[in-house]
Amino acid sequence: MSASPEIEEPVHAAPRREEAGPAPRRRRGRLMEFLIESFLLVNGFVAIAAISLIFLFLFKEGIQAFRTIPASHFLQGRELDFDNVPQTVMMWQPVGQNPKYSLVPLLLGSFLVALPATMIATLFGVACGVYLAEVAGKRTREVIKPSIELLAGVPSVVIGFFCLATLATLLQNTLHTTFRLNAMVGAIGVSLVIVPVIATMTDDALRAVPAYLREGAHALGANRWETITRVVVPAGASGLVAAILLGMGRALGETMIVLMATGNAAQVTLNPFDSVRTMTATIAAELGAVPQGGEQYRALFLVGSILFTITFLINLVAEIAVARMRKRLAL
Questions:
Q1: In whole angstroms, what is the distance from residue 299 CA to residue 263 CA?
Q2: Which of 10, 268, 301, 327 has its CA 20 to 30 A from that of 176?
């Protein structure tokens, strides 16, 4: 008697989770891209709106200065000398019976600090950027570049203390200057702040130069320095100009160093070893001590508006230079 064959029961597989098809994944991906693009777009508009509001606020307050102060007084004023003879003066002296609001000494003081600071920082910053981009090895670059960037993080008040306590005395003993605190002391201090800006941007601009330009120069027999000076630097010249202009804009906007190291004497001079007063130092020193809405208050806002306009135009020219470099190098 043979055994009856066992009937195998069908094995029911566990219900499988339905996998998402390619179409839903694509829809989720497009949704995420849309959200990210919208977020970035909103941030861009917020930045533009913030700058526009700052512009409007400064000019709204500053333009009211013309209601009480004649426009010609921002260039020069008149006062009586010791013989009661009227004479023309260019002075920023907002306190007294005959307040004077000439902006000439403040503009000269600002540029007397910013221009030497930019020249000093350009010398060291461009040299450092060229070294980092074209000469330094990988390990050397990993040490030097972060060190330079750390210098940008040093509080400007610390550099101001250094200029006030050490650099001013050293410079006076060396050059026998009349004034211990002067524009050159402030310029050297400000240059310490903007060297990292120029060095970092120079490095980025030169590293953006396509490698085939270097390879072509080497193939034609040029050595390293000929390649750097005749091919790489000219190709990245727009980026170098942008770095220098942004450094100059930073120098014009510096406050604490110039407040502590330039002597704060608002006088008309072109001598970099005279004491001067900058626009930023004037705003920082006086705005907190004047009554809101007064004549001097509005004049200080006008100074701020002019400073903002100058730095905005410098930064705009720098951005145009960067855009031209990217277009020329097809980046």
A1: 22
A2: 268
Q: Give every CB contact of residue 258 below 8 A, 6+ residues apart in sequence.
A: 113, 186, 189, 190, 278, 280, 281
Q: Which amino acid is at 148?
A: I
Q: Is 91 helix (H, G, I), strand (E, B) or coil?
A: coil
Pairing label, strands 92-93, 77-80? unpaired
- Span 173-223, pLDDT tens digits: 999 989 999 999 999 999 999 999 899 989 988 988 888 888 888 898 888
Q: Among 295, 218, 314, 312, which Cα is nearest to 61's?
A: 295
- Whether residue 248 contacts residue 241, with contact meaning beta carbons closer than 8 Å, is answered with no
Q: Which residue has the higher pLDDT, 305 or 324?
A: 305
Structure tokens at 296: 């001097």
Query: What distance, in Å, lies between the first and last C-alpha atoms of the chain?
Result: 89
- Residue 327 above 90 pLDDT? no
In tens, the pLDDT along 228-252 reads: 988 888 888 888 888 898 899 889 9
Q: Is 128 exposed, middle or buried (0-12, 13-18, 19+ CB in 10 A)?
A: buried
The 10s digit of each residue's pLDDT in 82-91 is: 777 778 888 8
Residue 281 CA, distance from chain mean position: 17
Pick from 267, 258, 252: which is nearest to 285 by CA? 258
Q: Which residues pair with 88 in a beta bridge?
A: 78
Helix (H) / strand (E) element for 80: namely strand 77-80
Q: Could you give the CA distance from residue 314 to residue 258 in angstroms, rounded to a whole number?
A: 20
